[in-house]
Amino acid sequence: MAALTPTVLPDVTGAPAPQTGRPRRVRVWRGVVLTVAALYFLTPLLASFVFTVNDPTAGFTLDAYQEIFSAEGFVQSLLLSLGLAVATIVTVLVLTLPAMLAVRLSAPRLRPVMEVLCTLPLVVPPITFVAGISTVLRWGPDYLATTPFYQTIIAIQDPAFPVVLVVAYVVLALPFVYRALDAGLGAMDVRTLVEAARNCGASWPHVMLRVIIPNLRSGLASASFLTLALVLGEYTVARLLGYQPFPVWIVTISGSNAPLSVAVSIFSLLFAWLLLLVLSTAGTRQRSGS
């Protein structure tokens, strides 16, 4: 007689199949990692907040936070940093995006060269970078006094809005912007979209504004996200060049009023998070809508 093989009948009761323990372990480890990360980031923030609201004589007080908006130089430095951030974002996108499109469409063999050039600022120390800028700014008035460029080199150093900082921030943000845009362009068929638009009679500005940018909004949001974070947190270049945007102003007041400086630091951190959240949400909505 043939050996009888037991037949496994399908489960018709509709009960879910038993799950293995691996997904549960993954969820547990994920929770542990997130908890440790939250403690690592939130503990200094909570300690700083306690320092600002705990007065040894008066007890709990919010005087440090009430002094923020009335502190001398707060509004001017914050507006200067925001203006520098907007100018940097616009400039670096206007310079980088057309160049990347031209390389992808017309000269793909130059992509490694462009990648090296765009990531080169990562290997240049900020001190060396600032020293080079300072040398050029000192050299300019001496050798350009009889040329039309003399007024230009003076104008870019205007303390009200130092364009030289925008130039420096564009160079520093170039690696991050390049990576964000390269990822966005790699996620869509650029050549097909451009050729289809051109065959329909669209001009190059129309292709850029109505075809490329709407399909690249998530990449543009990521590039703006990274550039904004860099400008709002950059201290070395601005301090060594003698300007006072928001990060430099925070360090300047730290010696005279410690609770106020810590309160301003917390406010700036939350403000930067809010701006970055707005940019991130905008990019996510555009990606989900498309």
Quaternary = single chain
Q: What is the first-to-last residue Cα distance?
A: 65 Å
Strand line-up in the sheet with most strands: 1-2
Q: Give me the number of helical elements.
A: 13
Query: How many DSSP E strands?
Result: 2
β-sheet strand percentage: under 5%
Characterization of this structure:
This protein has 290 residues and is an all-alpha fold. Helix content is 73%, strand content 1%. It has helices spanning 22-53, 63-66, 74-106, 111-119, 126-143, 149-155, 163-186, 190-199, 204-215, 217-233, 236-241, 246-253, 258-289, and strands at 54-55, 59-60. It has a two-stranded antiparallel ribbon. Helix 10 runs antiparallel to helix 13 (258-289). The chain is globular and about 75 Å long.
Topology:
Blueprint: H1 22-53, E1 54-55, E2 59-60, H2 63-66, H3 74-106, H4 111-119, H5 126-143, H6 149-155, H7 163-186, H8 190-199, H9 204-215, H10 217-233, H11 236-241, H12 246-253, H13 258-289
Antiparallel strand pairs: 1-2
Helix pairs in contact: 1-13, 3-7, 3-10, 3-12, 7-10, 8-9, 10-13
Short description, anyone?
This protein is mainly α and 290 residues long. 73% of the residues lie in helices and 1% in strands. A two-stranded antiparallel sheet has the order 1-2.
